[in-house]
UniProtKB/TrEMBL annotation:
<dbReference type="Pfam" id="PF00072">
    <property type="entry name" value="Response_reg"/>
</dbReference>
<feature type="domain" description="Response regulatory">
    <location>
        <begin position="143"/>
        <end position="256"/>
    </location>
</feature>
<dbReference type="GO" id="GO:0000160">
    <property type="term" value="P:phosphorelay signal transduction system"/>
</dbReference>
<feature type="modified residue" description="4-aspartylphosphate">
    <location>
        <position position="193"/>
    </location>
</feature>
<dbReference type="Pfam" id="PF22233">
    <property type="entry name" value="PhyR_sigma-like"/>
</dbReference>
<dbReference type="Pfam" id="PF22029">
    <property type="entry name" value="PhyR_sigma2"/>
</dbReference>
<dbReference type="InterPro" id="IPR053867">
    <property type="entry name" value="PhyR_sigma4"/>
</dbReference>
<keyword id="KW-0597">Phosphoprotein</keyword>
<dbReference type="InterPro" id="IPR011006">
    <property type="entry name" value="CheY-like_superfamily"/>
</dbReference>
<dbReference type="InterPro" id="IPR053866">
    <property type="entry name" value="PhyR_sigma2"/>
</dbReference>
<protein>
    <submittedName>
        <fullName>Response regulator</fullName>
    </submittedName>
</protein>
<dbReference type="InterPro" id="IPR050595">
    <property type="entry name" value="Bact_response_regulator"/>
</dbReference>
<dbReference type="InterPro" id="IPR001789">
    <property type="entry name" value="Sig_transdc_resp-reg_receiver"/>
</dbReference>
<dbReference type="InterPro" id="IPR014605">
    <property type="entry name" value="Sig_resp-reg_PhyR"/>
</dbReference>
Amino acid sequence: MSLGQELAPHLPFLRRYSRALTGSQTHGDAFVRATLETIVASPEEFPRDVDARLGLYRTFHAIWSSANIEEGEEPTTDLAGAEGIAHARLSRITPLSRQALLLTSLEGFSSEDAGYLISASAEDVESLVAEAMAEIERQTHADVLIIEDEPIIAMDIESIVRDLGHNVTGVAVTRDEAVAQARKSPPGLVLADIQLADDSSGIDAVKDILSEFSVPVIFITAFPERLLTGARPEPTFLITKPFQRSTVKAAISQALFFDAATVPAG
């Protein structure tokens, strides 16, 4: 099997990670392209002492580390919108802790493997994750609309959202209900399933909402690779079903991290 064949199944999930880390499909996918270009240019330097997924993420991190601000640096002042907000918050939370959080909670790497990727010990990774969660949760607060037709899953998501200190404005089970609730109480964050109760689409519901409101969205699906091809406008934040509570918390925190509408809690 060629190296390209080994890496192909892991590319959708690297896109998910890169988008979550940058808060942008465009910038996230650019880092993935740079990673692949680096591998193609120097395949002999690709880490072969670990499995293909670890080697892929390791190469990505080498590029990410060389392109981003170092801990303690002041954020640049010529950034606008989501990137400017994110860089301002980076002055209060280290990039390394955000990476540790997303690698373990969103991507499912063990503390040992995450440590390999960011050049830290497993114990350091666990400390970084705790630091990231505490800091990001303190900085953000939002009104959240949940679009989910499975009652048990909806209750679980609502519990997670409230545990993070956010307010749930409503739980919708159809496209029309979601749009109506968004108009009644404009959300600061939307968590949306793909397939809804009346066979309507959560994607269509979100499109309707985004046509009227600017709000970050996290999609929930059992088939994330279908929405992570890099070939068209796609979700920046995506959670795989079945999900862990820590995964939802990490995605919520990161989505709000890049959103101008969120405000410091308390």
